[in-house]
Amino acid sequence: MDFISILSIFVLACFVGYYVVWSVTPALHTPLMAVTNAISSVIIVGALIAAAAGAQADGGQTAKWLGLVGVVLASVNIFGGFAVTERMLAMYKKKERK
């Protein structure tokens, strides 16, 4: 595939993702965050594979560093997703009365 095809698919995916996320009702945000965390965990596995393949290849320092960046960014996304999910679930808990 040429660059224009890949770029157009990326732009269309951004538009679809934007409209899907903003049209979700608030009750479904917590399950949506759980799915996002699962996808990010798959990204971490792929980034680890890319980093390992880069370490074994001749002159594969670029793949190694990109794999590291992928692991770091996906980890931030996972931990942030869990923090947001925990905060949203806390909103539905009954408050203690004194």
Label this structure with key terms.
proton-translocating NAD(P)+ transhydrogenase activity; mainly alpha; 98 residues; cell inner membrane; EC 7.1.1.1
Write a structural description.
- This protein has three helices and no strands.
- It is mostly helical and 98 residues long.
- α2 (29-56) packs antiparallel against α3 (61-92).
- It is flat and about 65 Å long.
- The N and C termini lie far apart (65 Å).
- The mean pLDDT is 79.
Short description:
GO terms for molecular function: NADP binding; proton-translocating NAD(P)+ transhydrogenase activity. With 98 residues, the chain is mainly α.
End-to-end gap: 65 Å
Low-confidence stretches: none
| Largest pleated sheet | none
Order of helices and strands: HHH
Mean pLDDT: 79
| Count, helices | 3
> Which value, in Å, is the CA radius of gyration?
18 Å
How many beta strands in the DSSP annotation?
A: 0
Task: Tell me the fraction of residues in β-strands, as a range.
Answer: under 5%
Overall 3D shape: flat
Q: What structural class do the secondary elements suggest?
A: mainly alpha
- The level of helicity is over 70%
Enzyme class: translocase
Domain NAD(P) transhydrogenase alpha subunit C-terminal: 7-94
Keywords: Cell inner membrane, Cell membrane, Membrane, NAD, NADP, Translocase, Transmembrane, Transmembrane helix
Organism: Parasphingorhabdus marina DSM 22363
Write the layout of secondary structure elements.
Elements: H1 3-22, H2 29-56, H3 61-92
Helix pairs in contact: 2-3
